[in-house]
Q: What sequence folds into this?
């Protein structure tokens, strides 16, 4: 009771019941909207999971991006040691962020042209891949925003 | 165990694990997974002892069809989210590239001495981000495996549901209304949808929403335990957590509840005491002085509160707010040069972008329009923010200190979210408004539901106006 004693006399003129009705209608609306949206979200999620299982982790993560990015990551995962380091250069935002996560436990190290190339650091070897001519060389992954590239050093 | 304690268990386990984990890291020791188990056992046994002889769960006065309908719906949602979390690894961008990656990088036992965290030449764009969620995921990964560890997210969602249910039960007095409100929260489409902000997305936004909800319930109920836990956890979850914790403490500094402020400032001080030096270490910056920042900040809040209590005039409050703004501006200008040389690329980019702030004001109408649209985006946040409108009018003239504090928190949060979008380093504003804003709003959806729990008790009395007339 006492909590209403503080109410201002002007409140007596407020259309309180309208707001109460509005509140009840909106609350019912929230429950109805939620109940109607649940099946739709379930379908969307089922489709997403189906796509993930069909495409595989790498291709799924790069869906909507350049399809070559998924293939590059897949190639690096398939042909480099798990404890290896991979040189990177270019833009870190975009596909390179995804690549870093998908390549883990391989780690990315920024390629600095002024520093002489190393073949290993802290006991971890730098990743090598056969270049287009078939020669095994240090590989550099290039971040190009919404795509990735490979370069040999 | 009473209902009250069930609500506290997840928060206490998270707080204890975060505290022990960060203390061990600061002294250079890895965190074995069994520490999580031990913390869980300590909290559970402590709670069992504490709640002995207290009021048990009382479900006698609840409509049976309603309880069956609501609990089956919520159980279905949680079971579905558990399955979608378990069936595949992370499917969403940040879940994969930041949160889950760092949980994997922590390894077993969770350690910061690995190359990922300790060598600046290794690419890790969010290396200095808070580590509570990665730590919990890494510990769970070690205990039950990576896929089962992802069940952490539906459990978190269930914890928010119980927190809203408990708060509603205290405010409404009836189980029927409480169940309806908590279920209305549980069917919020954004949590069930695909992508950012969803339960199974792996983002830390759900954990942040839980900690914000703890703070909101603490403000409304003037519960110092909830306020302490919230302000302790928030800075450990996401960078914006620090802003929410400061906001909660700031609001309490302007109030008259000394006990609540002590709890919030104590939580925030302890949180920063552990996190800031660790963050400096992860950014390869000097850490010694940062040990003092948290306790100093907490003391500053308590001092400000004492001054405001002593000089309660409107002018004194205005001066206090002006001083706060000047201090924040000075800190951001003075800290800029230092931050520009930070090893954290995200922070560097944000600070470098401060020069363009003036230009961004021209985008204000676009941002305001987009913000309004996002608040009413039914397929993401449902009708919760629209529900705040009648709630505001029903509560007008009804002076409840807790409710006013929470209302203030929600109002300022909206302004902060608006500013976050307006001054975001991202140049594509429409992308920010479309994808990021709905995720940010989902962080405060549980807090908004907690605000709404004040309404049913007024409706049940027909209306406050009628009650006044009768009295």
A:
């Amino acid at each position: 009771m006492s909590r209403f004693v503080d109410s201002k006399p002007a409140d007596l003129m407020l259309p309180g019941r309208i707001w109460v009705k509005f509140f009840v209608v909106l609350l019912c609306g929230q429950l109805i909207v939620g109940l109607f949206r649940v099946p739709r979200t379930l379908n969307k999620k089922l489709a997403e999971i189906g796509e993930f299982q069909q495409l595989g982790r790498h291709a799924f993560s790069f869906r909507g991006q350049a399809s070559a990015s998924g293939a590059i990551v897949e190639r690096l995962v398939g042909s480099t040691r798990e404890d290896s380091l991979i040189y990177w250069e270019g833009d870190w935002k975009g596909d390179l962020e995804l690549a870093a996560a998908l390549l883990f436990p391989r780690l990315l190290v920024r390629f600095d042209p002024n520093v002489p190339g190393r073949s290993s650091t802290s006991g971890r070897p730098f990743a090598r891949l056969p270049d287009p001519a078939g020669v095994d060389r240090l590989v550099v992954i290039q971040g190009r925003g919404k795509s990735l590239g490979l370069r040999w050093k | 165990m009473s209902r009250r304690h069930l609500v506290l268990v997840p928060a206490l386990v998270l707080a204890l694990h975060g505290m022990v984990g960060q203390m061990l890291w600061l002294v250079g020791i890895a965190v074995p997974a069994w520490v999580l188990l031990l913390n869980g056992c300590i909290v559970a046994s402590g709670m069992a002892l504490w709640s002995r002889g207290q009021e048990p769960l009382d479900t006698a006065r609840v409509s049976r069809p309603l309880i069956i309908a609501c609990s089956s719906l919520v159980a279905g949602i949680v079971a579905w989210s558990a399955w979608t979390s378990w069936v595949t690894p992370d499917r969403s961008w940040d879940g994969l590239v930041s949160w889950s990656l760092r949980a994997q990088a922590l390894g077993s036992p969770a350690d910061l001495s690995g190359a990922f965290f300790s060598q600046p030449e290794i690419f890790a764009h969010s290396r200095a981000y808070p580590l509570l969620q990665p730590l919990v995921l890494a510990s769970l990964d070690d205990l039950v495996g990576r896929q089962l560890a992802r069940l952490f997210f539906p459990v978190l969602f269930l914890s928010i549901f119980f927190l809203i249910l408990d708060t509603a039960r205290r405010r409404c007095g009836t189980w029927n209304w409480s169940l309806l409100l908590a279920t209305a929260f549980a069917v919020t489409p954004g949590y069930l949808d695909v992508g950012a902000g969803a339960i199974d997305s792996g983002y830390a936004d759900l954990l942040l929403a839980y900690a914000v909800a703890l703070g909101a319930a603490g403000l409304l109920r003037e519960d110092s335990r909830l306020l302490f836990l919230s302000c302790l956890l928030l800075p450990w979850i996401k960078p914006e957590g620090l802003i929410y914790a400061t906001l909660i403490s700031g609001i309490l500094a302007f109030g008259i509840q000394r006990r609540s402020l002590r709890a919030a400032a104590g939580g925030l001080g302890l949180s920063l005491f552990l996190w800031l030096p660790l963050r400096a270490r992860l950014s390869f910056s000097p850490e010694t002085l940062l040990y003092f920042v948290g306790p100093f900040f907490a003391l500053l809040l308590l001092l400000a509160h004492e001054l405001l209590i002593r000089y309660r005039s409107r002018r004194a409050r205005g001066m206090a707010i002006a001083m706060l703004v000047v201090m924040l501006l000075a800190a951001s200008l003075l800290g800029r040069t230092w931050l520009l040389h930070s090893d954290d690329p995200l922070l560097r980019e944000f600070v470098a972008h401060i020069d363009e702030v003036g230009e961004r004001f021209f985008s204000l109408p676009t941002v305001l329009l987009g913000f309004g649209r996002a608040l009413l985006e039914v397929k993401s946040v449902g009708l919760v923010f629209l529900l705040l409108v009648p709630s505001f009018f029903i509560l007008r003239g009804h002076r409840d200190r807790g409710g006013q504090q929470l209302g203030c928190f929600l109002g300022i949060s909206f302004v902060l979210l608006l500013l976050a979008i307006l001054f975001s380093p991202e140049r594509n504003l429409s992308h920010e408004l479309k994808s990021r804003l709905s995720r940010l709003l989902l962080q405060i959806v549980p807090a908004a539901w907690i605000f709404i729990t004040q309404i049913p008790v007024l409706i049940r009395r027909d209306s406050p106006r009628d009650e006044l007339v009768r009295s």
Observations:
- The two ends of chain B are 39 Å apart (CA to CA).
- The mean pLDDT of chain B is 86.
- Chain B has 25 helices and no strands.
- The first helix of chain B runs from residue 3 to 26.
